[in-house]
From TrEMBL:
Any one biological process term the GO annotation gives: carbohydrate metabolic process
Gene3D superfamilies: Glycosidases (3.20.20.80)
Top EC category: hydrolase
This protein's name: chitinase
A single GO molecular function term of this UniProt record: chitin binding
Length: 390
């Protein structure tokens, strides 16, 4: 049973109000997919991040209350989930960084940007913001055209920027940040900067997906357990507490073109073709992604059906994969089984404070990963409660 994203359910069975000891369960929410699970009011979701407002909007002079309209109001979003859910406005997103950089360059710009964000939060009734400046310091979408050296100043500016947002919003509003999952991209998250960053944010959403992207040259699991643990360990080693980190789940599939002969023996770790322009970083069309709710591109349809039929679970890494030797395509994706197993292999073993997924509507129409994620959260909450009762 599915419903349109703008529809508010009435009279649904509601869970008790959200408690402080629950595992955080955060859903990014967009209007990209029209289908939506019908059980959101009985699911253990604690936070919803409405995506996205663009960062340049807040570089205007202070005093404005004319904010870009989102596809629905915060109030309508809140009504779609259980009592007590926190609704955040996510700002930024992949590639949308110029507005952040413009604001963070000066102390005056930081204060102005933060004051406007605080005004927006008040006007919309949101519970806070999710800062999706995903790659401060470099390695973003424009890393070839704007070298990292030209963004090195952002590493020092980023904690100050978050500090101004905290000052403007006050202690009672939520600030989260979406942060890189690949260790090589954690340029702004060092042992020197991370303790200060954690003073200003409530938690970090560690993007433990896209761990393989078109910059890579060998196949790997884009949501792999080993790489996810490596990412969490890096943040913990540099000064974050495990309970302030959220593990990311991807409700979408990725594919990559590979070489042929080297992959015949073992497709894991075998070489890909060149996937981006070495000078501009432009996508060469040799890799891609689509949501479970999306229609498969025609030329990949048969290959994707083969991946669903013959895909293998890598017990060493807790991920599903398939290599199509006819098209030389590497598929990497999570199933409900992979989601469930990550609660034992990562969530419990590392003691993280929560999970999140990009993005809710992407998992339709079956919503099997969504359901597995909620069951994992429910189990973790019961286990935590039982320990306290003992």
């Amino acid at each position: 049973m599915f419903w349109k994203i703008k529809t508010c359910l009435a009279g649904a069975l509601l869970l008790p109000a959200i408690g402080a000891t629950e595992l955080r369960n955060i859903m990014y929410l967009t209007n990209q997919h029209e289908i939506f699970p019908g059980d959101t009011q009985t699911a253990p979701v604690t936070h919803v991040a409405m995506s996205f407002m663009r960062p340049h909007v807040f570089n205007r002079p202070e005093g404005s209350h004319d904010w870009p309209a989102m596809w629905q109001t915060v109030e309508a979003t809140r009504a779609q989930f259980r009592d007590g859910v926190k609704v955040l406005i996510a700002i930024g997103g992949w590639g949308d960084t110029e507005g952040f950089s413009d604001a963070a360059r000066t102390a005056e710009g930081q204060k102005r940007w933060a004051a406007n964000v605080a005004a927006m939060v008040k006007d919309t009734g949101a519970d806070g913001v999710d800062i999706d400046w995903e790659y401060p310091g470099g390695n973003g979408e424009d890393y070839k055209t704007v070298p990292n050296e030209e963004k090195a100043w952002e590493i020092e500016a980023y904690p100050k920027f978050l500090g101004e947002i905290r000052t403007a919003l006050g202690a009672n509003k939520i600030i989260s940040a979406a942060v890189p999952g690949k260790v090589g991209d954690m340029l702004a998250f060092t042992a020197d900067t991370l303790p200060t960053i954690m003073q200003h944010v409530d938690f970090l959403n560690v993007m433990t997906y896209d761990m393989m992207n078109r910059r890579d040259n060998v196949t790997k699991h884009h949501t792999g357990v080993k790489l996810s643990i490596e990412a969490l360990d890096a943040y913990i080693d540099r000064g974050a507490r495990a309970k302030d980190l959220n593990l990311g789940f991807a409700f979408y599939v990725k594919w990559f073109k590979t070489q042929h002969e080297p992959c015949l023996a073992n497709p894991i770790g075998c070489p890909t073709v060149l996937m981006e322009d070495p000078e501009t970083g432009a996508d060469l069309g040799q890799a891609g992604a689509f949501a479970w709710a999306d229609q498969t591109p025609d030329w990949l349809s048969a290959s994707w059906q083969a991946a669903l039929t013959w895909g293998k679970y890598d017990p060493d890494d807790g991920s599903y994969y398939h290599w199509d030797e006819n098209l030389d395509v590497w598929w990497t994706f999570d199933t409900a089984r992979a989601v469930r197993n990550k609660f034992q292999s990562i969530v419990r073993s590392k003691g993280v404070g929560g999970v999140f997924a990009w993005e809710l509507g992407s998992d339709g129409p079956q919503f099997s990963r969504w359901q597995a994620l909620n069951k994992g959260v429910d189990f973790a909450n019961r286990h935590h409660s039982q320990k306290h009762e003992l």
